[in-house]
Amino acid sequence: ELGYGKAVHHVLRTLADVTRATGAVPTPSEIDDILDQSFFLPTANKPAHRQLKDAARRLVTEYAGAHSDDLFRIWETERPFELHLEGVTIAGRADVILDREGGVDTALAILDYKTSTSDLAEHELQLRIYTDAGRREGLDVRGAYVHDLKAGVRAEVAIDGAAIDGAEDTVTQAAIRLRDRDYRPSPGARCRRCEVRTVCGAAAV
């Protein structure tokens, strides 16, 4: 499954580009063509590739059917952001930025796709940083959402002043620890989802 999430992201980005270029949401057969051209999973053997491609087809087709309005609101895809704070610069890319948030022409919403999510809190910091960076650029960001493609569920992320201040404090403190070479482990509930927990001596059981 290595690279599956990125492959699905790429297909969704292509889907958005085709919709924007043609003015119509691709049909299921056109989505199949997009998958044939855009779904790239180089480390998978043939049976795994076929299984994962079928899974991607279900995710993308269901998304296109349930959230076709999004595809007509694409303001930008893979939008890079940089947030400059004291002693640290955080860089990243937002999957999708939607326009006309709340029916307001100038208002934007940041949408982050996940092929599966286990805990919304894992993604809140990321979206708050993107929101903060966008607002500092002068963008009117009024919404932020995590969309779990597997579950078909969209969760709103709080981006009020207190939430943004908390995100800034989190990344600033992390930067201070890195600068001071303070690598003391901080095990907790997240250890259960960590990919290297089986070889980490500090992992919480």
Give a nutshell description of this structure.
By secondary structure, the chain is α+β, with helices and mostly antiparallel strands.
Order of helices and strands: HHHHEEEHEEH
Provide the helix percentage.
40-55%
Query: Unreliable stretches, pLDDT < 50, 5 or more residues?
Result: none
Calculate Rg over CA atoms.
19 Å
Strand content: 15-25%
Number of helices: 6
Spatial arrangement of strands, main beta sheet: 1-2-3-4-5
Question: Please, could you describe this protein's structure?
Answer:
The chain is α+β, with helices and mostly antiparallel strands and 205 residues long. Helices cover 44% and strands 21% of the residues. The chain has six helices and five strands. Helix 1 crosses helix 3 and helix 5 (121-136) packs across helix 6 (161-179). It is globular, with a radius of gyration of 19 Å.
SSE topology:
Blueprint: H1 4-22, H2 28-38, H3 46-66, H4 68-71, E1 74-85, E2 88-99, E3 108-114, H5 121-136, E4 141-148, E5 153-156, H6 161-179
Parallel strand pairs: 3-4
Antiparallel strand pairs: 1-2, 2-3, 4-5
List keywords for this structure.
single chain; about 200 residues; alpha+beta
